[in-house]
Specification:
With 529 residues, this protein is α+β, with helices and mostly antiparallel strands. Helices cover 43% and strands 18% of the residues. The strands form 2 sheets. Strands 2, 3, 4, 5, 6, 7, 8, 9, 10, 11, 13, 14 and 15 form a 13-stranded antiparallel beta sheet that branches. α1 runs antiparallel to α2 (46-63).
């Protein structure tokens, strides 16, 4: 029997104060602090008590995530609107690499002139200010990329590996990319078909151990429609002019059907090293020096990928070096200009012109590639229904006619002990809620029952000795078309396929597709802190 998994059931966070992002929590506690101060200022006066109560209630209400807002709070939406206005005013809605490189060159010239004690006019502008703040080894990049640098190291005697350092957080974290080969297609038995998924689960469980420096594993797939133009040209040159008309027409119809369905699929795994304690311990075990961290990353990646092959999660893999990474990143931004295997680019020139000002429905790359991004919210999967582990495969290869699109699934692994504590807390909260509703005779719409079943199942799965660990996930889908008119048509097409995968709804990230683009690049990002 096909292995199944239930992803639905988590409609919302439990408790009045949970489920908020870090900025929302800051706003909430500031509001509650102000309310407490107001109450203390006049505890014997009704006005101060009433004002404090109003401030406290408003702080809670405006920061609570709501389904009608796509799982976000009113404060988050208003903050985003204000930030969007600021970005437009500051010119941050458009990233132009030519403009950024020109600003960097002017800053370098000015610094050289000052160093040589020559007179020079200090350049001005927002791009110049960004160039002044940027460290020398960090190349210009869009806002959503941040401070990103790369160092290439030996992975094995035949391959080099690009190690990306993301310095947006303190301390920084690292990511590496591997191109992976999945299991062969065709007709196979159900038990055999499930083997790669079971193997991937074992890989996640290994990464979730506290001794592992890997904190996230991103599974990323790119689907590209095949171009049969060369095949048609070959037919025109070599087909027998005396061939029967019915045979030629039949083959022509076959070619047209293949053109709608045929795709090339490229899959990548991204390992993110953000378990600082384990990474520091592993680096200390290496030979002391500036490359100790990179040596620890290579050692951990080798062990994890070898286990992935041993457990048949993948058939094989190859390390992605700087040139390969540059081709991949350039293609994912502009597939009409760059092939995914291009090796003529360097990482210093990989970022393309990104324009969010032309249309709120997509980010426009180089004025001709329109990319739209959606994420699957935590309540996006159909509740109460178990799905086959192969269900998401339709999002990868089930879109007809074929379109250029990507599917990214980011897993943040959680150690069993920590996941078990959260599961038990949720289970206790759900049982208390259910008991309270029963004692009051309150009739539920079924939400509490589904959430209770979900927490019960997690508690059973995480039983000590089961070998299971926890995971937080973020799932994204993006597509690219060559005109604005095709955006809504392809969006509907993808939503229809998503329904077949057991997904109730996709949340399109309008007005912020340029920022969301980072979630559909093999960079290990996509889960908020």
């Amino acid at each position: 029997m096909t292995r199944q998994v239930a992803l639905g059931g988590e409609f919302k966070k439990r408790g009045l104060l949970s489920g908020r992002s870090t900025p929302e929590q800051v706003i909430l506690w500031i509001g509650l602090g102000i309310a407490a101060i107001v109450v203390l200022m006049g505890m014997d006066q009704f006005f101060f008590l009433f004002a404090g109560l109003v401030i406290a209630v408003l702080s809670v209400v405006i920061t609570v995530p709501m389904n009608i807002h796509g799982g976000r709070s009113y404060a988050a939406l208003k903050t985003e609107t204000a930030y969007r206005a600021y970005r437009k005013h500051a010119g941050l809605g458009v990233y132009d690499p030519v403009h950024e490189q020109t600003a960097l060159a002017s800053v370098q010239e000015y610094r050289a002139a000052k160093k040589n004690k020559k007179k020079a006019v200090r350049p001005r502008g927002l791009a110049v200010r960004r160039a002044e703040r940027r460290k020398e080894h960090v190349q210009p990049a869009p806002l959503m990329v941040g401070r990103l640098s790369v160092k290439e190291v030996d992975f094995n005697p035949r391959e080099r590996l690009a190690v990306f350092r993301h310095a947006n957080s303190d301390p920084a974290f690292y990511t590496v990319i591997f191109e992976v080969r999945g299991s062969a297609g065709g007709v196979v038995e159900e038990d055999v078909e499930d083997i790669p998924h079971l193997g991937f689960g074992r890989v996640l469980a290994r990464a979730a151990r506290r001794t592992s420096a890997v904190s996230h594993i991103q599974s990323f797939t790119r689907s590209i429609p095949l171009d049969i133009t060369d095949h048609v040209s070959w037919l025109a040159d070599y087909v027998d002019p005396n061939a029967h008309g019915n045979l030629v027409r039949s083959y022509q119809e076959l070619c047209l059907q293949v053109e709608d369905r045929a795709e090339q699929h490229r899959s990548y795994w991204v390992l993110r090293f953000d378990n600082r304690t384990a990474l520091h311990r592993a680096a200390n075990a290496q030979q002391p020096g500036p490359m100790a961290v990179h040596a620890a990353i290579v050692q951990e990646a080798q062990a994890l990928m070898a286990q992935a092959v041993a457990h048949k999660a993948i058939r094989g893999y190859r390390a992605v070096d700087s040139q390969m990474a540059a081709g991949i990143l350039a293609h994912l931004q502009d597939p009409y200009t760059y092939a995914i295997d291009d090796t003529d680019l360097g990482l210093e020139a990989v970022w393309q012109k990104l324009d969010q000002e032309q249309t709120p429905k997509a980010v426009v790359v180089n004025n001709h590639a329109y990319t739209r991004v959606a994420y699957i919210p935590r309540d996006g999967f159909m509740a109460g229904s178990a799905l086959p582990v192969q269900a998401m495969r339709q999002l990868v290869s089930g879109i007809v006619p074929a379109v250029i699109h990507s599917v990214s699934w980011v897993n943040e692994v959680v150690d069993a002990k920590e996941a078990r504590a959260q599961a038990m807390s949720d289970r206790t909260s759900d049982k208390a809620k259910r008991h309270s509703n029963a004692s009051k005779g309150k009739i539920s719409d079924g939400t509490e029952q589904v959430m209770s079943n979900s927490s019960d199942q997690r508690a059973v799965d995480l039983t000590p000795g089961s070998g299971h660990h926890g995971v937080k996930w973020g799932a994204y889908v993006s597509f690219t078309v060559d005109s604005e008119e095709k955006l809504l048509q392809v969006s509907t097409q993808i939503e229809s396929v998503a329904t077949d995968c057991g997904i109730d709804r996709l949340y399109w990230l309008d007005n912020r597709h340029d920022m969301a683009l980072m979630a559909v690049l093999p960079m290990g990002r996509g889960i908020r802190k």
